[in-house]
Design brief:
The chain is an alpha+beta fold and 287 residues long. The chain has 2 helices and 12 strands; from the N terminus they run H-H-E-E-E-E-E-E-E-E-E-E-E-E. Helix 1 (2-36) runs antiparallel to helix 2. The model is unreliable at 277-287 (pLDDT under 50).
Length: 287
Amino acid sequence: MRGVHRLASVADRLQASYRRYAAGVLTGGSVALLLLGQFESPTVSRIEATLLDAVAVTVAAVNVPFEGAGMLIRDFDELVHAREENRRMHFELDRLRSQVTTLQGVESENLKLRELLALVPSQVPAYVSVQIVAAGTAVPRNTIVIDGGTRDGIRVGDPVVSLGRMAGYVTVAGERAARVQLLTSIASHVPVFGERFGHSAVVTGGKGGFLRFAYVGSSSSPTSFLEHEALYTSGQGGMFPPHLLVGSVERTEGGMRIRPAVDIEGMRYLQVIPSAPVDAVPAEQLL
Protein backbone atom coordinates (compact mmCIF):
# COMPACT_ATOMS: atom_id res chain seq x y z
CA MET A 1 0.00 0.00 0.00
CA ARG A 2 2.85 2.41 0.77
CA GLY A 3 4.39 1.67 -2.67
CA VAL A 4 1.09 2.51 -4.33
CA HIS A 5 0.91 5.82 -2.48
CA ARG A 6 4.52 6.62 -3.54
CA LEU A 7 3.66 5.86 -7.17
CA ALA A 8 0.62 8.08 -6.94
CA SER A 9 2.78 10.88 -5.51
CA VAL A 10 5.30 10.51 -8.33
CA ALA A 11 2.49 10.60 -10.88
CA ASP A 12 1.12 13.77 -9.33
CA ARG A 13 4.55 15.44 -9.53
CA LEU A 14 4.98 14.35 -13.16
CA GLN A 15 1.54 15.63 -14.06
CA ALA A 16 2.36 18.96 -12.38
CA SER A 17 5.59 19.18 -14.38
CA TYR A 18 3.64 18.36 -17.51
CA ARG A 19 1.14 21.10 -16.80
CA ARG A 20 3.95 23.63 -16.39
CA TYR A 21 5.58 22.44 -19.62
CA ALA A 22 2.30 22.49 -21.51
CA ALA A 23 1.55 25.95 -20.18
CA GLY A 24 4.95 27.19 -21.40
CA VAL A 25 4.45 25.65 -24.84
CA LEU A 26 0.97 27.09 -25.14
CA THR A 27 2.15 30.51 -23.98
CA GLY A 28 5.05 30.55 -26.44
CA GLY A 29 2.85 29.35 -29.25
CA SER A 30 0.21 31.91 -28.48
CA VAL A 31 2.77 34.74 -28.53
CA ALA A 32 4.17 33.49 -31.83
CA LEU A 33 0.68 33.25 -33.30
CA LEU A 34 -0.13 36.80 -32.15
CA LEU A 35 3.05 38.13 -33.76
CA LEU A 36 2.40 36.25 -36.98
CA GLY A 37 -1.15 37.49 -36.98
CA GLN A 38 0.19 41.02 -37.56
CA PHE A 39 1.28 40.02 -41.05
CA GLU A 40 -1.26 39.26 -43.70
CA SER A 41 0.25 37.09 -46.41
CA PRO A 42 -0.29 33.53 -47.63
CA THR A 43 3.15 32.51 -46.45
CA VAL A 44 2.56 33.82 -42.95
CA SER A 45 -0.86 32.12 -42.84
CA ARG A 46 0.72 28.80 -43.77
CA ILE A 47 3.38 29.27 -41.11
CA GLU A 48 0.68 30.16 -38.55
CA ALA A 49 -1.35 27.07 -39.42
CA THR A 50 1.74 24.87 -39.29
CA LEU A 51 2.74 26.31 -35.92
CA LEU A 52 -0.78 25.83 -34.55
CA ASP A 53 -0.78 22.17 -35.63
CA ALA A 54 2.69 21.67 -34.16
CA VAL A 55 1.63 23.10 -30.78
CA ALA A 56 -1.49 20.90 -30.70
CA VAL A 57 0.41 17.76 -31.69
CA THR A 58 3.16 18.47 -29.15
CA VAL A 59 0.73 19.00 -26.31
CA ALA A 60 -1.22 15.87 -27.25
CA ALA A 61 1.95 13.79 -27.58
CA VAL A 62 3.25 14.92 -24.22
CA ASN A 63 -0.16 14.35 -22.60
CA VAL A 64 -0.55 10.71 -23.70
CA PRO A 65 2.16 9.09 -21.56
CA PHE A 66 1.18 11.08 -18.48
CA GLU A 67 -2.50 10.15 -18.82
CA GLY A 68 -1.57 6.52 -19.46
CA ALA A 69 0.68 6.45 -16.40
CA GLY A 70 -2.06 8.01 -14.26
CA MET A 71 -4.64 5.46 -15.44
CA LEU A 72 -2.20 2.61 -14.86
CA ILE A 73 -1.48 3.77 -11.32
CA ARG A 74 -5.19 4.17 -10.56
CA ASP A 75 -5.93 0.69 -11.93
CA PHE A 76 -3.09 -0.74 -9.86
CA ASP A 77 -4.39 1.05 -6.77
CA GLU A 78 -7.88 -0.39 -7.33
CA LEU A 79 -6.37 -3.85 -7.83
CA VAL A 80 -4.49 -3.61 -4.54
CA HIS A 81 -7.68 -2.51 -2.73
CA ALA A 82 -9.58 -5.37 -4.36
CA ARG A 83 -6.96 -7.86 -3.17
CA GLU A 84 -7.14 -6.46 0.37
CA GLU A 85 -10.94 -6.74 0.33
CA ASN A 86 -10.71 -10.27 -1.05
CA ARG A 87 -8.26 -11.22 1.71
CA ARG A 88 -10.60 -9.75 4.34
CA MET A 89 -13.60 -11.65 2.92
CA HIS A 90 -11.62 -14.91 2.89
CA PHE A 91 -10.75 -14.35 6.56
CA GLU A 92 -14.42 -13.71 7.39
CA LEU A 93 -15.46 -16.82 5.44
CA ASP A 94 -12.96 -18.96 7.33
CA ARG A 95 -14.28 -17.58 10.63
CA LEU A 96 -17.89 -18.39 9.68
CA ARG A 97 -16.90 -21.89 8.57
CA SER A 98 -15.24 -22.42 11.93
CA GLN A 99 -18.41 -21.31 13.74
CA VAL A 100 -20.58 -23.62 11.61
CA THR A 101 -18.27 -26.54 12.38
CA THR A 102 -18.48 -25.75 16.11
CA LEU A 103 -22.30 -25.52 16.01
CA GLN A 104 -22.54 -28.80 14.12
CA GLY A 105 -20.39 -30.44 16.78
CA VAL A 106 -22.62 -29.05 19.55
CA GLU A 107 -25.76 -30.27 17.76
CA SER A 108 -24.25 -33.73 17.28
CA GLU A 109 -23.32 -33.84 20.97
CA ASN A 110 -26.84 -32.79 21.98
CA LEU A 111 -28.33 -35.56 19.84
CA LYS A 112 -26.08 -38.12 21.50
CA LEU A 113 -27.03 -36.82 24.95
CA ARG A 114 -30.73 -37.02 24.10
CA GLU A 115 -30.27 -40.62 23.01
CA LEU A 116 -28.41 -41.45 26.22
CA LEU A 117 -31.05 -39.80 28.40
CA ALA A 118 -33.99 -41.05 26.30
CA LEU A 119 -35.19 -37.47 26.46
CA VAL A 120 -38.67 -36.68 25.21
CA PRO A 121 -38.49 -33.11 23.86
CA SER A 122 -41.09 -30.88 25.40
CA GLN A 123 -43.54 -29.33 22.97
CA VAL A 124 -45.24 -26.03 23.48
CA PRO A 125 -48.86 -26.75 22.48
CA ALA A 126 -51.32 -24.31 21.06
CA TYR A 127 -54.32 -23.55 23.23
CA VAL A 128 -57.97 -22.89 22.44
CA SER A 129 -59.63 -20.71 25.07
CA VAL A 130 -63.14 -21.87 25.95
CA GLN A 131 -65.89 -20.88 28.34
CA ILE A 132 -67.83 -23.20 30.63
CA VAL A 133 -71.47 -23.04 29.53
CA ALA A 134 -72.94 -25.85 31.65
CA ALA A 135 -71.92 -28.14 34.51
CA GLY A 136 -73.21 -31.35 36.03
CA THR A 137 -75.38 -31.19 39.13
CA ALA A 138 -73.41 -33.75 41.14
CA VAL A 139 -71.15 -32.61 43.97
CA PRO A 140 -68.30 -32.76 43.31
CA ARG A 141 -68.86 -32.05 39.63
CA ASN A 142 -67.85 -34.80 37.21
CA THR A 143 -68.54 -33.18 33.85
CA ILE A 144 -68.84 -29.75 32.27
CA VAL A 145 -69.78 -28.44 28.81
CA ILE A 146 -67.56 -25.92 26.99
CA ASP A 147 -68.31 -23.66 24.01
CA GLY A 148 -65.60 -25.08 21.70
CA GLY A 149 -65.92 -28.00 19.31
CA THR A 150 -64.61 -29.65 16.16
CA ARG A 151 -64.70 -26.39 14.21
CA ASP A 152 -62.01 -25.18 16.64
CA GLY A 153 -59.90 -28.34 16.16
CA ILE A 154 -61.07 -29.95 19.41
CA ARG A 155 -61.54 -33.72 19.45
CA VAL A 156 -62.23 -36.53 21.88
CA GLY A 157 -59.31 -37.10 24.27
CA ASP A 158 -57.94 -33.54 24.13
CA PRO A 159 -56.79 -32.37 27.59
CA VAL A 160 -58.49 -29.40 29.20
CA VAL A 161 -56.24 -27.23 31.36
CA SER A 162 -56.06 -24.04 33.37
CA LEU A 163 -52.68 -22.31 33.19
CA GLY A 164 -50.86 -25.57 32.51
CA ARG A 165 -52.74 -27.49 35.22
CA MET A 166 -54.92 -30.36 34.00
CA ALA A 167 -58.63 -30.20 34.80
CA GLY A 168 -60.00 -33.01 32.62
CA TYR A 169 -60.32 -34.17 29.02
CA VAL A 170 -62.88 -34.12 26.21
CA THR A 171 -65.16 -37.17 26.01
CA VAL A 172 -67.69 -35.96 23.41
CA ALA A 173 -67.00 -33.36 20.71
CA GLY A 174 -69.70 -31.49 18.82
CA GLU A 175 -69.22 -28.88 16.14
CA ARG A 176 -69.67 -25.91 18.50
CA ALA A 177 -69.50 -27.48 21.97
CA ALA A 178 -67.89 -30.38 23.82
CA ARG A 179 -68.35 -32.32 27.01
CA VAL A 180 -65.39 -32.57 29.40
CA GLN A 181 -64.86 -35.28 31.98
CA LEU A 182 -63.13 -33.83 35.02
CA LEU A 183 -60.30 -35.62 36.83
CA THR A 184 -62.52 -35.88 39.91
CA SER A 185 -64.78 -38.34 38.03
CA ILE A 186 -64.32 -42.00 38.96
CA ALA A 187 -64.38 -42.72 35.22
CA SER A 188 -61.22 -40.72 34.56
CA HIS A 189 -57.78 -42.37 34.43
CA VAL A 190 -54.59 -40.34 33.93
CA PRO A 191 -50.99 -41.70 33.88
CA VAL A 192 -48.75 -39.58 36.13
CA PHE A 193 -45.29 -39.49 37.69
CA GLY A 194 -43.96 -37.97 40.92
CA GLU A 195 -41.59 -35.04 40.69
CA ARG A 196 -39.31 -36.28 43.50
CA PHE A 197 -38.30 -39.80 42.45
CA GLY A 198 -40.20 -40.27 39.20
CA HIS A 199 -42.48 -43.04 40.49
CA SER A 200 -45.24 -43.78 37.98
CA ALA A 201 -48.91 -44.31 38.72
CA VAL A 202 -52.45 -43.89 37.37
CA VAL A 203 -54.84 -41.60 39.23
CA THR A 204 -58.63 -41.48 39.14
CA GLY A 205 -61.47 -39.67 40.90
CA GLY A 206 -61.91 -40.25 44.62
CA LYS A 207 -64.16 -39.07 47.41
CA GLY A 208 -64.97 -35.49 48.31
CA GLY A 209 -63.47 -33.95 45.15
CA PHE A 210 -60.03 -35.53 45.69
CA LEU A 211 -58.15 -37.99 43.49
CA ARG A 212 -56.75 -41.38 44.43
CA PHE A 213 -54.17 -43.85 43.14
CA ALA A 214 -55.85 -46.42 40.88
CA TYR A 215 -52.58 -48.10 39.99
CA VAL A 216 -48.97 -47.74 41.12
CA GLY A 217 -45.90 -49.05 39.31
CA SER A 218 -44.64 -52.49 40.33
CA SER A 219 -41.48 -51.01 41.84
CA SER A 220 -43.36 -48.64 44.16
CA SER A 221 -46.51 -48.16 46.25
CA PRO A 222 -48.70 -45.18 47.23
CA THR A 223 -46.49 -44.68 50.27
CA SER A 224 -43.51 -44.24 47.94
CA PHE A 225 -44.83 -40.77 47.14
CA LEU A 226 -43.92 -38.02 49.58
CA GLU A 227 -46.44 -35.68 51.16
CA HIS A 228 -46.96 -32.52 49.06
CA GLU A 229 -45.17 -34.18 46.16
CA ALA A 230 -46.44 -32.83 42.83
CA LEU A 231 -47.80 -35.25 40.24
CA TYR A 232 -47.52 -34.54 36.51
CA THR A 233 -48.88 -36.27 33.42
CA SER A 234 -46.28 -38.76 32.17
CA GLY A 235 -47.37 -38.87 28.53
CA GLN A 236 -47.31 -42.69 28.62
CA GLY A 237 -49.53 -44.25 26.00
CA GLY A 238 -49.69 -40.94 24.13
CA MET A 239 -52.97 -40.06 25.81
CA PHE A 240 -51.95 -36.62 27.09
CA PRO A 241 -48.96 -34.27 26.72
CA PRO A 242 -46.33 -34.76 29.45
CA HIS A 243 -45.61 -32.35 32.31
CA LEU A 244 -49.15 -31.06 32.94
CA LEU A 245 -49.65 -30.59 36.68
CA VAL A 246 -52.37 -32.97 37.97
CA GLY A 247 -52.24 -32.45 41.74
CA SER A 248 -50.24 -32.91 44.94
CA VAL A 249 -50.09 -35.82 47.37
CA GLU A 250 -51.63 -35.51 50.84
CA ARG A 251 -51.32 -37.95 53.71
CA THR A 252 -54.43 -38.68 55.81
CA GLU A 253 -55.39 -41.18 58.48
CA GLY A 254 -57.06 -43.28 55.82
CA GLY A 255 -54.00 -43.30 53.56
CA MET A 256 -52.80 -41.20 50.64
CA ARG A 257 -54.98 -38.92 48.57
CA ILE A 258 -54.35 -36.33 45.86
CA ARG A 259 -55.60 -32.76 45.87
CA PRO A 260 -56.46 -31.70 42.27
CA ALA A 261 -54.42 -28.83 40.83
CA VAL A 262 -57.60 -27.26 39.43
CA ASP A 263 -60.66 -26.40 41.50
CA ILE A 264 -63.40 -26.12 38.90
CA GLU A 265 -65.84 -24.37 41.26
CA GLY A 266 -66.21 -20.72 40.34
CA MET A 267 -64.20 -21.04 37.11
CA ARG A 268 -65.56 -19.65 33.83
CA TYR A 269 -62.70 -20.03 31.36
CA LEU A 270 -60.39 -22.94 30.51
CA GLN A 271 -58.00 -23.91 27.70
CA VAL A 272 -58.03 -26.95 25.45
CA ILE A 273 -54.89 -28.40 23.88
CA PRO A 274 -56.34 -29.36 20.48
CA SER A 275 -55.33 -32.06 18.06
CA ALA A 276 -56.78 -33.17 14.73
CA PRO A 277 -60.54 -32.51 14.38
CA VAL A 278 -63.11 -35.34 14.37
CA ASP A 279 -66.60 -35.68 12.98
CA ALA A 280 -69.22 -33.68 14.88
CA VAL A 281 -71.87 -35.43 16.95
CA PRO A 282 -75.40 -34.22 17.61
CA ALA A 283 -75.58 -31.50 20.26
CA GLU A 284 -78.13 -33.47 22.32
CA GLN A 285 -75.42 -36.04 23.15
CA LEU A 286 -73.46 -33.41 25.05
CA LEU A 287 -75.92 -33.00 27.95
